[in-house]
Amino acid sequence: MSTLKSRYPYYLANKPVDAERTLPVTDKYSGEVVTEVALADARAIDAGIAAAVAAAPAMAALAAYERQDILNHCVTRFRERADELAYSLCIEAGKPIRDARGEVTRLIDTFRIAGEEAVRMHGALQTLDISPRAKGYRGMWKRVPIGPCSFISPFNFPLNLAAHKVAPALAVGCPFVMKPASRTPLGALIIGEVLAETPLPAGAFSILPCARDGADLFTTDERLKLLSFTGSPDVGWDLKARAGKKKVVLELGGNAAVIVDQDADIDDAVERIVFGAFYQSGQSCISVQRIIVHESIYDALKAKLVAKTSALIEGDPKEETTFIGPMIAESEAIRLETWIAEAKAAGARVLCGGGRRGAMLQATLLEHAPQTSKVCAEEAFGPVAVLMPFSDFDAALALVNDSRYGLQAGVFTRDFYKAQQAWDVLEVGGVVIGDVPSYRVDNMPYGGVKDSGLGREGVLFAMEDMTEIRNLVIRPAPDRR
Fold first, then answer.
1. How far is CA 323 from CA 30, 41, 285, 326, in A?
2. Looking at domain 7-252+452-470, which of 3.90.850.10, 3.30.1460.30, 3.40.605.10, 1.10.730.10 is its CATH number?
3. What SS3 class is residue 290?
4. Quick check: is 352 catalytic?
5. Which CATH class is domain 257-433?
6. Could you confirm whether 468 is annotated as catalytic?
7. Does residue 213 register a pLDDT over 80?
8. pLDDT tens, residue by residue, 63-108
9. Which of 90, 174, 210, 285 is catalytic?
């Protein structure tokens, strides 16, 4: 098993910097402080932004192959440091070690995809002679880097959600400043260690764990041209309101639903729903929270789902057999325990789970929860899911849409026309047929509608957000004859 360093620097203008003020990082299972990271102040953040502004011309001038080489170096080094990355993730996020290894694989995939896309950026010729006044004129356009970017990444995927901001920025040639989540800063700082090995222009990146007193600059500073935030809706929309003229991309929360129609393979659906609801203790924006089941198979699916959920192994995330680890903090487990109690008081029935020990909350299934209860209407972001029956497929689609969120939805059906209908009707950023809404591949467009956000991640789509179209018009030479 790997070990952690006793102390980690932050990265300012590509260079490691120690600081007197530090941020403790805890083992989320034991609660013990296991390391500390240097804490950036407002002056350091201001310096990082200034360095990114100064680096913008050099970053934009990098050739496509140079950007690709930098990304490919990261892929190689992440593979070499895979065990270290997985262990740090297991400790700082409480993520079961098998899942941590999976996230490292996704980190590598995201940088690999960005390296491939870095040499595929394109523009187009455009026909302009659509009327006599434009005869002879020629048009074309290309994409250019938007400029210095601000990234704020969340605690639940400290590696891969940071990668979904950093890798596209490098692919298009945008310098950036990043604020990693205070509870899980190690993943981003290790990415910084690897970036510091590359020939990126001075000032190309700064990775700056910081307290809230200096963090406003990540949002409000007008030198920054784009803000990309992943986190809670309340915080995200507030940041957008204060971001000024810069472009804003928000990947926010959800209370993802899955529909299981009467023709579904029950065993297969149960297998995938248990994974989708309780992987990483439900701390995912697309964790299965609402399970909408056709009444003809409701009892059979419920029995199998309860049995499989009750059998999940909870405990130390460093153990290979652990499936349910701790939530990110005891306060979050207490919050969700309170939501379960409120739902019970309103008529919900707990089918399994519901118990809590410190930051450990048992995998919990409920039924008969009112639509207005928090476990249905809000984002649980923990190991809790609610079952509800339906008799009519149109009504099931309406139940999915009865939410202020719209990130992804899953539909288990073998009816091609119902699958098409779901794609047409569901008010979400993505519809997954034959699987849970928790499924994501790192090159697909990923993002939500309504309170779930703005814009799309997925490497190519993030690259589009991080670039602007620059048009070129060429007038024909005057006829001097």
1. 17, 38, 18, 10
2. 3.40.605.10
3. strand
4. no
5. alpha beta
6. no
7. no
8. 999 999 999 999 999 999 999 999 999 999 999 999 999 999 999 9
9. 285
